[in-house]
Every structure is written in C-alpha cells, then in structure tokens.
Amino acid sequence: ETGVTQTPRHLVMGMTNKKSLKCEQHLGHNAMYWYKQSAKKPLELMFVYSLEERVENNSVPSRFSPECPNSSHLFLHLHTLQPEDSALYLCASSQRGVGDTQYFGPGTRLTVL
Amino acid sequence: KNEVEQSPQNLTAQEGEFITINCSYSVGISALHWLQQHPGGGIVSLFMLSSGKKKHGRLIATINIQEKHSSLHITASHPRDSAVYICALLGGGADGLTFGKGTHLIIQP
Q1: Mutation to test the B interface, candidates A7, A104, A111, most B Cβ within 10 Å
Q2: If you average pLDDT over residues A64-75, what whole number do you get?
Q3: Where are the beta strands (DSSP E) in chain A?
Q4: With the CA atoms of A33, A10, A21 and A17 taken in that order, what torsion angle do they form, in degrees rounded to the nearest 10?
Q5: What is the spatial distance between Cα B32 and Cα B92, in angstroms, rounded to a whole number?
Q6: Do A98 and B95 lie within an 8 Å CB cutoff?
Q7: Of B93 and A103, which is predicted with more confidence?
Q8: pLDDT of res. B64
Q9: pLDDT at B7
Q10: Can you give the C-alpha Rg of chain A in angstroms?
Q11: How far is residue B37's CA from residue B82's CA, in Å, rounded to a whole number?
C-alpha cells in the first residue's frame, strides 16, 4: 500500500465519547500534519510533527491530543468534543518540512452530536 | 498575517473551455502551492512554484512574485476536472501553509 491512509473515513460521536483518528504514511517522510477543514472555511493547520517531535501547535483546544509514536504513524485523540468540532480532518506528510510538497490522506469526516 | 484571495469563488463552465483561477496575496512568500480537492475530501498537490511557470498535462500554473499573484489554468477542460482548487502560501510570516478558501469548479459536459 502506498501514500497516506486515514482511518476511519467517517466517525459519528457524542460529546462525552473518546475516539482516535489514525494516519499512516508509506512514503518514508519525516514530517506529518493534522489539518481541520470546516464548511466554507480554509484549511487550518492544527499540528506539525517533524521526526516524531511536535514542532507546531496552532492554539488547538486541549480536547484534541496528537500522538506521533514513529515517523509513519500519527494519531489524533479526541475527547469531550463540541458540535462545532464537526469537520473533515486531514492528515498529510512531507519529506522534511512545510517547504516540501505535502501528500494528503483522504480525510476523516467527523460529526459530533 | 498574509491575506489570501482566490477568485472566482465558484465557476461553472462547459467542457472544452479554457479555465483560469486566480490567487492574490498581500505579503511576500517563498513558494505557493496549488491543490485540488475532489468531492469526498481527498487533496492532491498539483504544483509548488516560487517563480515563473510550470506545466503538467493540461494544467499550467504561473506566479508573479512582484505582483503577488498566481494563476492556475486548465486547457480543454473536462468534467473530471470538477473539484475545489486551493492555493496555499509558504512563508509571508506564517510558520506553516496559509490556505485560500478555494475555487469550486464545475465542468459541465
């Protein structure tokens, strides 16, 4: 399997649930990203990991918790979300950092009830 | 903060037409990306350019650094080109990419 994969593709959760989004890249890249895309808004960068270390956290609420156990895997742990957190969550990877071409996963469509 | 403006926001055209999508920004950048997002969410990076012009198949991207403007052109458009096209800026004071809101393109057969 090649490219960037994300699971699940769709997720519906209640505000009291805890769930996790998973991203895996098979490209040998060293940087991985989480983005949020809400309806009618530009993509928003949430987190950047480079060589498994978080290098950027764009003032994301603590109910979103990222984890990067190795350079191929990235998780986004979700707990006590709000309905306004419903969005498409996209993972991407690049060879080194933000200056390189980013390869995107298909996204997870999250609905918070 | 870099202000990114894409135009038009929505564009419907007939198959075969020449398409132009524009991206303007307010602060100098080091590079600009054009991305394509199909219904369902998947994003594909089309071009990354910092000067001049790049061509890939029926797609052409140009950038004018002095005028802070980039265009994406599609020649001989086809219904499968229907997607949202997003420009993303690198640099200009931001640590990561700054994204435009996208241009929603529909090509009718």
Answers
A1: A104
A2: 94
A3: 4-7, 10-13, 18-25, 31-37, 44-50, 53-57, 64-70, 73-79, 87-94, 103-104, 108-112
A4: 130
A5: 11
A6: yes
A7: A103
A8: 95
A9: 97
A10: 13
A11: 9
